Amino acid sequence: MTTAPSALARRLLDGAGADHEAHVARYGALPGLRLDDLLAAVADSGLTGRGGGGFPAATKVRAVAQGARRPVVVGNGIEGEPLSSKDAVLLNRNPHLVLDGLEVLARALHAKRAILAVGPEIEPGPVTDAARRRPVHLVALAGGFVAGQETALVNGLNGQAPLPRDPFTRVTESGVDDRPTLVLNVETLAQIALVARYGATWFRSAGLPDDPGTSLFTISGSVSRPGVIEAERGARLSDALAPARPVRPAAVLVGGYHGAWVPASDLGARLTRAELAPYSASVGTGILHVLDTETCPLDLSADVMDYLARQSARQCGPCLNGLPRMASDLHRLAVGVRDPDLPNELERMAALVTGRGACAHPDGSARFVASTLRVFRGHVAAHLEGRCPSARSTRARSVAS
Ligand code: SF4
Fold first, then answer.
1. 245-265 exposure pattern, b = at least 16 Cβ within 10 A, e = fewer
2. Span from the CA of 150 to the centroid of ligand 1 (angstroms)
3. Nearest-10 crossing angle of helices 323-334, 361-375
């Protein structure tokens, strides 16, 4: 029988800042691994990407290793999601572990260059000091919600606008300087540094057999102690949230602005693909945002949708037309416009934009809207009657009166 993982673990956050000697004393020297050995360890560990996509890390490394030219290895520290701060905290507390991941991969792949790309939300101090002593180029780029998307990041590093490009050219084949490019989130790199040191069996001593290891989670919203925690994969949502002390939770947004809501009645669900699937949610970048019973979920969702519509690169039809339309309809619903067609129209638009963009921005935005309508069905019905069940909301009541 599988032992249920406990919520807390501290593999990643007990770093020594920019002090390399203290870092080596804490974690041990970084081994130099041949590509075959590193690939075997990462594959056996079952490590998946911690940047949102959740793909097996070994698959990406293998794809780049098969390229015709020496590759470029890129650490993705562009944390474009406003609700996430786990990458910033990791780079601040444990920059050398991220740099270890870059270095061990760059050596094994005989990479032409290793780059750590960071956005404006990353504190320059510790990571700048740490990178100065390592064979890594630190590159600061502009931020934005879609700027951390893999192809947008590669465009930014190639001196172009940091916008997603066509999905048919894989960066693992042609990325930075037209070279095969391995882009991994900074947390994934830190995990690879641990796997390289301690092996796959140790990595699997935390988490679930089919979803091993730990992850960083950013907890925000209606909590007494917001911040970043490290929890074992497969922890219950309630256990992961406990250190932050939720206050009157009504629902939790799992996975950020491209994520989905889990109602407070279901906080016993585990943070796994299977148990989050009924809510169309996934762990993604580890964002857990708590909504309290006094805040109107339609108000909040309309503001999120506004943000998402503004963040699109405005290159494709779904973003140009569909996202602003969904934001506008959600606002009308939030302020209490009594148009019974609004929920159907929102669902229709969400289905229409899905799968039609050059990147996943419309899909993620549509998923968020569909989840809002589904989880807050009672709220939607109340707003259509001109009232709002949330204690602090005045919008729907004032429009109705
Ligand atoms: S789908 Fe939207 S965000 Fe993605 S490339 Fe097209 S316009 Fe840009």
1. ebeebbbbbbbbbbbbbbbbe
2. 13
3. 20
Whether the CB-CB separation of 254 and 283 falls below 8 Å is answered with yes
Which residue puts its alpha carbon closest to atom 1 of ligand 1?
357
- The model's pLDDT over 179-218, given as tens digits with 9 standing for 90+, comes to 999 999 999 999 999 999 999 999 999 999 999 999 999 9
Q: What is the CATH number that goes with domain 297-400?
A: 1.20.1440.230
Ligand 1, pocket-test mutation among 160, 310, 316, most atoms within 8 A of CB: 316
- Which uninterrupted H or E stretch holds 255? none
Ligand 1 neighbour 360 (Cβ under 6 A): no
In angstroms, what is the span from residue 164 Cα to ligand 1's centroid? 7
Q: What is the enclosing helix (H) or strand (E) of 395? A: helix 395-400
**CB of 362 shorter than 6 A to ligand 1:** yes
d(CA 189, CA 168): 25
Q: Where are the domains of the chain?
A: 20-203, 297-400
Ligand 1 contact, 316 CB (< 6 A): yes
Q: Can you tell me the mean pLDDT for 360-387?
A: 96
Q: Is residue 117 a contact partner of residue 157, using CB atoms and an 8 Å limit?
A: yes
Kind of pairing between the strands at 287-292 and 214-221: parallel
Q: Which fold has domain 20-203?
A: Rossmann fold (3.40.50)
CA of 80 to the centre of ligand 1 (A): 15
The dihedral through the CA atoms of 283, 260, 268, 218 has a sign that is positive
Measured in angstroms, how far is the CA atom of residue 216 from the centroid of ligand 1? 27
CA of 354 to the centre of ligand 1 (A): 12
Half-sphere exposure of 86 (CA within 13 A, CB side): 31
Give the global pTM.
0.93
Q: What is the DSSP letter of 246?
A: B
- Tens of pLDDT, residue by residue over 109-165, are 999 999 999 998 887 789 999 999 899 999 999 888 988 999 999 999 999 988 888
Q: Which residues 6+ apart lie within 8 Å of 9 measured at CB?
A: 206, 214, 230, 231, 232
